[in-house]
TrEMBL record:
Boundaries of every ABC transporter domain copy: 6-237
GO MF term set: ATP binding; ATP hydrolysis activity
Keyword field: ATP-binding, Nucleotide-binding, Transport
InterPro entries per record: AAA+_ATPase (IPR003593), ABC_transporter-like_ATP-bd (IPR003439), ABC_Transporter_VariousFunc (IPR051782), P-loop_NTPase (IPR027417)
Keyword Chloroplast assigned: no
Protein name (record): ABC-2 type transport system ATP-binding protein
Gene3D superfamilies given in the database record: P-loop containing nucleotide triphosphate hydrolases
Domain of life per record: Bacteria
Any Pfam family matching the protein: ABC_tran
Length: 250
């Protein structure tokens, strides 16, 4: 059995000990899996991600990345994943290329390999003309592309990507999806949170449906359809999602 890259076990957590937001959340990601994390606004997706990033401490349960907990080996834990946040965080006074170089250095990418990766990424994400621009002078989508290029440059075993499609133009979305398929084929795992269910359905192998801080369905599309009480044949993720979370007071 291949070891999971990410293991969330019986996680209960949130912003105040008296009122947890997440309740007994458990799931695993194995190498080569792309998993879609879906749920309505406030379902608990970002809070789950914050626990995985180590920004919040579990009130109960644990999170392991690459087989270790954050407190056991912080360096190993943190170097095993790249995170692409919904809102880009960049250094205003560094250029696009300087961001890439900084990431290359932080992850110890060899010079020759770095040059090739840098050129490929700048071309694929239509950022060549902007490579010398300061981050402060980029559009929102361009800033997001820099975050994505940084993550792809570091080639970690685990990618955590929060709502990547909203700021990107159609070419950017296509480049990102093509790259994600490639990194997945090379054995990385991807946890992607998104509201764009058709894209999630088309690209992810498995799904985690969250509702009010709990997982209400998980697994393949067939598993999610079954949990929603639907016939497996022909059911879409959106139909299953609607059945799982509607009916409830929204
Ligand atoms: N900083 C915070 N302090 C207190 N409560 C918070 C904080 N951030 C989020 N929450 C609460 O935690 C719950 C889950 O929110 P979370 O941000 O995880 O949802 P989400 O699924 O990521 O939603 P969205 O799709 O809107 O991004 C919500 O009830 C929200 O009000």
């Amino acid at each position: 059995m291949i070891e999971p890259v990410l293991e969330v076990a019986d996680l209960t957590g949130g912003y105040s000990p008296r009122r947890p937001v997440l309740h007994n959340v458990s799931f695993q990601l194995r190498p080569g899996e792309m998993v879609g994390l879906i749920g309505l606004n406030g379902a608990g997706k970002s809070t789950t991600i914050k626990h995985i990033l180590g920004l919040m401490k579990p009130q109960q349960g644990e999170v392991k990345v690459g087989g270790v907990k954050l407190e056991d080996d912080p360096d190993r834990y943190r170097s095993a994943f790249a995170y692409v946040p919904e809102t880009p965080v960049l250094f205003d006074e560094l250029t696009v290329e300087e961001h890439l170089r900084l990431t290359g250095m932080a992850y110890g990418v060899a010079e020759q390999e770095f040059e090739k990766k840098r050129m490929d990424l700048l071309n694929e994400f239509q950022m060549n003309a902007k490579k010398g621009a300061f981050a402060a002078h980029l559009s929102k989508g361009m800033k997001q592309k820099v975050m994505i290029m940084n993550a792809l440059l570091s080639e970690p075993p685990l990618y955590i990507i929060d709502e990547p499609f909203l700021g990107l133009d159609p070419l950017g979305i296509r480049s990102l999806l093509e790259r994600l398929v490639e990194v997945k084929q090379n054995g990385s795992a991807i946890l992607m949170s998104s509201h764009i269910l058709a894209t999630v359905e088309a690209y992810c192998d498995k799904f985690i449906v969250m509702h009010h801080g709990r997982i209400v369905a998980s697994g393949t599309l067939a598993d999610v359809c079954e949990a929603a009480g639907m016939a497996m044949r022909g059911g879409t993720l959106e139909d299953a999602f609607y059945k799982l979370v509607a009916g409830d007071k929204l």
